[in-house]
Amino acid sequence: MGSITRSFANNITTSGVLLPASLTNNSIANVTAYNAAIATGGMKLISTQTASNSASLSFTTGIDSTYKEYQFYFIDIHPRTDAAYLTFNLSLDSGSNYNVTKTSTFFQAEHDEPNTAASLYYWTPGDLAQSTAEQYLNYWIGNVSDESLVGNMSLFNPSSTTYVKHWISTTQMTAYNDYCTAAFTAGYANTTSAINAIRFKMSSGNMDGTILMYGIV
Predict the structure, then answer these.
(1) Which of 47, 110, 138, 150 is the most core-located residue (most Cβ within 10 A)?
(2) pTM for the full model?
(3) pLDDT tens sequence across 100-129
(4) CB atoms closer than 10 angstroms to residue 96
């Protein structure tokens, strides 16, 4: 027992704080719960949707008051139509209608493969002003076999019945004209009703790729 006590004591500071080295799989047994004061935050995978020549991907369950933030990750979104845009819209009725009023802003950075052009600019066609239309998340994605889009989008507190619902999105893609393009869009759904569904689709034609939905604890 003496050696065990000395080993344990070596992992305590002079102020009585346990060092990280003392907390291992072997040092704490049968832990079933944490004290409420201990932060256990992280990302919880809620749903995975995969498109294969699909018209759209929709998340109609899992968006509720459980989480204050939801994140969507776009993995190799590939349009079947050249120079198409990835878009989204929101629903208040579990996906029966996608027509929530939105106001947004959009800018992007781009650089071409031959290293002859680069720019950073505000893109007016990508913003909305009190519109129920689809919101663009990018510029023109190419549909050559090796071209695609990746990125993520955060939707904040969609179940609030007090505030409007904000989102922020960053995407990176291979454009139809061989540009590397990073697009940044943000805005809000101008409603105090709870949002409970979201749909992603191309501005034209079908798409391939995967979208993951996480809740942020």
Answers:
(1) 138
(2) 0.82
(3) 999 999 999 999 999 999 999 999 999 999
(4) 10
